[in-house]
């Protein structure tokens, strides 16, 4: 075991291992590209849907159940299915990653919107605010902590699962895992897994710090009663 971790340390810190097309730096950039793009696409789909059903209260049953269905889909199976339909491309990977990320974004956005105190919304309407003003100036800011939590969960899940890009012969940190398994190179497999875990932890800490920064003014709004002022 000591030798394994010693070799892992050498593998991770070797300058040669970080350079070139198969180096850690290049594979890390690929992994981040896959993860961030898939999460962005999922946010474009999930955020408006969650805001809509949370604001109107309509379609919640269908949307939440569809989101749960997407969460239950086997990721590798979905990759293989789309791969058979579209051929060798990154589409199967992106479809699978987006399907994985959307449920967390939709459910947390919906939960954040429904958690807003109805009295606060009534006060906003009573002061003459229109529906879109209530949504963007009252509900959305108050729901932001839970929405950010959904985005964090989605991104971490996607980062951990983006290793499947290597399953269909593309790059990313998963390349080390799949190549290591094929070559029976335990150090390479462990190195890929450690790198994926480190990326997930760093991104989670970064988003957690951003969430705290964004949450602070909204917590003050809640502590002051959350009553908005009518815009001039």
UniProtKB/TrEMBL annotation:
Topology with respect to the bilayer: Multi-pass membrane protein
Principal location class: membrane
Taxonomy, superkingdom: Bacteria
Protein keywords: Membrane, Transmembrane, Transmembrane helix, Transport
Membrane-spanning intervals of the chain: 32-53, 60-85, 91-111, 153-174, 186-210
Keyword Transcription regulation belongs to the record: no
This protein's name: ABC transporter permease
Species of provenance: Streptomyces bluensis
